[in-house]
Amino acid sequence: MRALLRNVGRVTVCQVVGNLEFATAADFRSALADLGARHLVLDLSGMAFIDSTGVGALLGALRRAREHGGDVVLCSPRPSVSRVLGLVGIGRLVPIAASVDEAVTALSVTSAA
Questions:
Q1: Largest alpha-carbon pair distance within the chain?
Q2: Could you report the per-residue pLDDT of 57-102, keeping only the tens digit for each?
Q3: 18: region left, alpha or beta (phi > 0 left; psi from -120 to 50 alpha)
Q4: Which helix (H) or strand (E) holds 92?
């Protein structure tokens, strides 16, 4: 698993590449721990697989962002990842956008309010 980070204005975009699972969740948490970003887009287009530990890591990112007055938007999950996220009901807690641009726009509107 790799976490590729870039900034788009006041929003940090993290593209997750590979599997987010028990063996890689700690690396994901470490990649996000030093961000200090309050508004985060998690681009899941490169994520091939996620397990329950990976879902927990996503929820941890959401919790940390909200603790700092920010928010998280997920975007572009592959169908297999989307099914897992749907099964656990993550869409009730965090928006899921179709693209990075849509997710950045959603967070930019939120942060301007």
A1: 38
A2: 999 999 989 988 889 999 999 999 999 999 999 999 999 999 999 9
A3: left
A4: none
What domains are defined for the chain?
A: 2-112 (3.30.750.24)
Cβ-contact 14, 42 below 8 angstroms:
yes
The backbone region for 95, taken as left when phi is positive above 0, alpha when psi lies in -120 to 50, beta otherwise, is beta
What does the DSSP assignment read for 13-58? EEEEEEEESTTTHHHHHHHHHTT--SEEEEEEEEEEEE-HHHHHHH
Residue 110: the pLDDT is 62
User: Which tokens hold the place of 26?
Assistant: 């700690």
Distance set, CA 17 to CA 31, 68, 110 (Å): 13, 26, 26
pLDDT in tens, 13-68: 999 999 999 999 999 999 888 776 689 999 999 999 999 999 999 999 999 899 88
